[in-house]
């Protein structure tokens, strides 16, 4: 049943990506050039809705939350690799798979890169786990825990910041 639920939510998310035009190469280039914030708006909307949904489930006792360990070095290295790859190819891994579903063939390179990157990660995992992961290791911590505030206060602040950012984008025609 979990696999069916995952398939259904994955298909729905893919449909939302397609309808939001987030799978279009032009949108990615526009985001990278800071001229089209469609992808940024989609990402922040998704994060906000997901955050609210997860915390409703947590508060209702339906779900459990155990954040992964935060490791500064791993986050920085992963973020740089992701960003450089996105800038070089014009697609991120998730949207490249969605673009294949739309029939675009030029996105096989990002998918190939994602698979090669996964293989390299698997081969280097021992080194990464022993050398990189301990650098800047903060353990399992969430933002509300780190600042000592109720999660709904953090979510409200994030929602307000997102709405202000969206308003700015709209005023600038982004």
Describe, in plain words, how this protein is organized in 3D:
- The protein is built from 8 helices and 2 strands; from the N terminus they run αααβαααβαα.
- The mean pLDDT is 90.
- It has 174 residues and is mainly α.
- The protein has a two-stranded antiparallel sheet.
- The chain has one domain (2-172).
- The relative contact order is 0.12.
- α3 runs antiparallel to α8 (151-172).
- The low-confidence runs, each spanning 5 or more residues with pLDDT under 50, are none
Assess the beta-strand content as a share of residues.
under 5%
What pattern of helices and strands is seen along the backbone? HHHEHHHEHH
Overall strand count: 2
Strands of the widest sheet, in order across it, are 1-2
Work out the helicity level: over 70%
Rg over C-alpha atoms, rounded to the nearest angstrom: 18 Å
- The helix/strand class is mainly alpha
């Amino acid at each position: 049943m979990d696999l069916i639920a995952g398939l259904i939510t994955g298909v729905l998310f893919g449909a939302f990506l397609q309808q939001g035009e987030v799978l279009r190469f032009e949108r990615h280039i526009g985001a990278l050039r800071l001229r089209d914030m469609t992808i940024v708006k989609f990402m922040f909307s998704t994060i906000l809705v997901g955050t609210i949904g997860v915390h409703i489930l947590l508060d209702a006792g339906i779900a459990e939350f155990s954040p992964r360990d935060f490791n500064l070095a791993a986050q920085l290295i992963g973020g740089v690799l992701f960003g450089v790859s996105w800038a070089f190819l014009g697609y991120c891994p998730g949207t490249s798979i969605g673009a294949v579903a739309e029939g675009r063939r030029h996105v096989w390179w990002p998918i190939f890169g994602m698979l090669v990157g996964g293989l390299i990660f698997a081969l280097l995992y021992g080194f990464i786990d022993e050398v990189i992961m301990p650098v800047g290791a903060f353990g399992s911590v969430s933002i509300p825990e780190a600042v000592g505030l109720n999660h709904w206060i953090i979510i409200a602040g994030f929602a307000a910041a997102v709405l202000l950012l969206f308003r700015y984008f709209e005023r600038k025609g982004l």
